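Final report, results section. Input specification for complex C-07:
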Amino acid sequence: MSKCSVRHLSLLGSPLKRRCFLKGCNMSTTALLNGSDMGRVVTLDNMNPHLRVMEYAVRGPLVIRASQIEKELASGVKKPFSEVIKANIGDAHAMGQSPITFIRQVVALVSYPVLLDSPDFPDDCKERARVILGGCKGGSAGAYTDSCGIEVIRRHVAAYIEKRDGGIPSDYSNIILSNGASESIRAVMKLLINKSKDGLNNGVMIPKPQYPLYSASIAEYGLEQLNYYLDEDNGWGLDISELERSVNEARKRCNPRAIVIINPGNPTGQVLSRQNIEDVIKFAHREKLFIFADEVYQENVYAKGSQFHSFKKVLMELGEPYSGMEMASFLSSSKGYMGECGLRGGYAEVINLDPKVRAVLEKSISAKLCPTVIGQTVMDVIVNPPVPGEPSYDLFMSQKKAVLESLSQRATMVAETFNSIPKMKCNIVQGAMYAFPQIMLPEKAIEKAKSLGQAPDVFYAFQLLEKTGICVVPGSGFGQRPGTYHFRTTILPQPEKLKMMLEKFREFQTDFIREYS
Amino acid sequence: MSKCSVRHLSLLGSPLKRRCFLKGCNMSTTALLNGSDMGRVVTLDNMNPHLRVMEYAVRGPLVIRASQIEKELASGVKKPFSEVIKANIGDAHAMGQSPITFIRQVVALVSYPVLLDSPDFPDDCKERARVILGGCKGGSAGAYTDSCGIEVIRRHVAAYIEKRDGGIPSDYSNIILSNGASESIRAVMKLLINKSKDGLNNGVMIPKPQYPLYSASIAEYGLEQLNYYLDEDNGWGLDISELERSVNEARKRCNPRAIVIINPGNPTGQVLSRQNIEDVIKFAHREKLFIFADEVYQENVYAKGSQFHSFKKVLMELGEPYSGMEMASFLSSSKGYMGECGLRGGYAEVINLDPKVRAVLEKSISAKLCPTVIGQTVMDVIVNPPVPGEPSYDLFMSQKKAVLESLSQRATMVAETFNSIPKMKCNIVQGAMYAFPQIMLPEKAIEKAKSLGQAPDVFYAFQLLEKTGICVVPGSGFGQRPGTYHFRTTILPQPEKLKMMLEKFREFQTDFIREYS
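Structure output:
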């Protein structure tokens, strides 16, 4: 401080000059007082406070440590395991799932149209690629598309939705293609950022446990996060009285404006019944809530008796006044049987928006120019796959079926194994790609965690990682009822590896319980 | 109102219930009073006000009208022209530029690795693709990458920057890959959203004229837009006294925290001298500003005597204290000789950030998961092109050179032609992809525009579009000195088409001047 105290003191009186510009100092006057600033323009103290508080557990500290361990293993460090198993993220290809040939062939043709003359590509691939290129300006995947995506692909998406929903119309102008589903979820949620004249913030209802994209985006946007708990004792069911409790409490402090439903559930794997969806829609109507229907796992339904019902279909079939409700539904190329996370395809279908609001939505995404043409291409193939009689049909169907059947078997294996391990219990994985088992942590383990300043489930997950190389995400990253502890694991490791992982889990849990009992 | 007035009146007393739920009504109590609401949850009145006010002229109403005209032409409507020329956006492939073969071959191999066995792809392409796939989890472009991108590509980017800057070190951990440059520009700018304790907002200095991504993002983020005017009479030069005027005025109402420099300029096409860059850096240091160096046109320098100097190189060569300044520089796959807009590749190099702020930046982008692997692949090829002796070298160089030479000729042609048209003047296009000529509008035309409720330059551009099919962007979308009128046109139409377009311009302008004199 000595070096620049005079200059600093001369600045202290001015509210608009907060820094000392003496060479080598450059501290803020605040920093002069608290010593926390290295003279930088952007500091933790003055940066965007919303970004500071947001959390995205799926890529949090545990995952960073897992990557470090991978590097340690690669550099020869000895561990009680030979590889890290990243069961933290729904990333099928990373866990060894092969791409669907048809998707990749069409992508290759769109990227490098010279291949359209190659005899090595089936005609149905070429036909898809030609249609997509026909929708690209200048016939090139290198041209910007409309901000909502290529019109012909949006039309294919609408046709797919119409077919999925038994003929209920879908208008292509309601389809917004995006880089993965996350981007369009965030674009639509952004519409809601506002406070009412009485100073109350807008709020968004999300399930607990939830996929942390929602809590992260809500935090970033400065919205209020309104939790409704899923009922673990009833297969992670969605209880309307809990929704009512949540919204009634929320109205005391904010304006609830939207509800997020994840179906099939992430991280919880439940599949909502049609009745349940009807009840949610009626609830949302009573409470004047915009519906976010996160349906990215619609192809991932495994349990006997479970069936996917789209929110849009149920809403339309309920008729007036429900069929006029504002809703957005999302699909991603990253999930389903495709698992094309890295190619970033996704869409939103946004219905019943005020046309003026819709225009603002379109304007707001236009500054980002357009979603990747390759992601759009993947989405096109997903909604417009080979049909019987086309040359790629048999291979496509066999690959799709193999992935979904194997996922179904793994879903069963995971839940059954966890239920056979002491002090763990796990609901049936009806759909999606995850299990969210509960761990009954011994009191001593909870105390140990607290002594280390860690949440008990975080402590557990770090122990698991360090001792077995298995990387899961602690339940607190998704939300859980206070006093309960969980983790999310994907069911994506290939069957042999998954079996091995589950056995390691059994050993770890047995040792852990013994150590802390 | 009659139908539900009783219910409405019963609600009026409650601040938390604002809507009537009677079937067919559903009006808000406010709407009941002003009649502006159709019962929707999200309305212009209650939605995000920042999104309402943001504008992105490059995709504004004029472009929407141009697309309508294209559809009218396609459906057989007779017009005084047979095609729309979209000179509104820097989209080279849409205007007929062919992709660089090497880029597309590598993309095809990464997308569909079966092709690695094909004899039709050169070995250097295969080597690039193998390295990229080696950096993908599970060896698949379908796996999520790290949020900042694939490590090996980030390393290639850092090596490219180091070479570009004559050996000044670049650390790969400072490289953030993104879906085009826009995404990383927005991610970094988002860090600045905050108010100081005395309620003053943060502000960002941007040039006028500017690329409207900046004004749009500033508006969306609720930051203060601080304009500094470029000097049209001096080749769109950047005058430090004008920066000082701007920042001094701004300090009365906000906290200026950053300055955006676009070099080469968009829409103005100027290339900054080294001395000018030094002066800007010293100004930014004096005023404690974070530097956004938009250098996406760094390959696009045409004028004799003009040379691109990167901000980072100049900043580092200036030494302490400047070399410690916080800065982000951006590159895009959409510009240069590549023009790969639709594949969405881009990067930011972010230097000298407070490590804690940097951690928040990384966290904030992690919720978006990762940029497209194909966009990352394109960026890899751009920074790691074929070298002499590799099989693709000759073709790559001849394609690159052809594009850049043709652009250079078109840059000259455009400025010369505009200067030969009455009541127009245009600075030399030293770099980038645009000309930003001034039009001296007759008083009568200005009056006519005002009578129609249009800005004069918007009126001019609409007239041009309707009469010639040429779509440009009015100067007001970029900013211009009050009382002056401009438009931005790209130099991207292929030479013959550009010539034709410029002749149409001459005719239009001649007629326009005659009509309104």
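Chain B has three domains: 2-47, 57-96+397-516, 147-330+347-368. The domain at 57-96+397-516 of chain B is CATH 3.90.1150.10 (Aspartate Aminotransferase, domain 1). This concludes the modelling results for the funded period.
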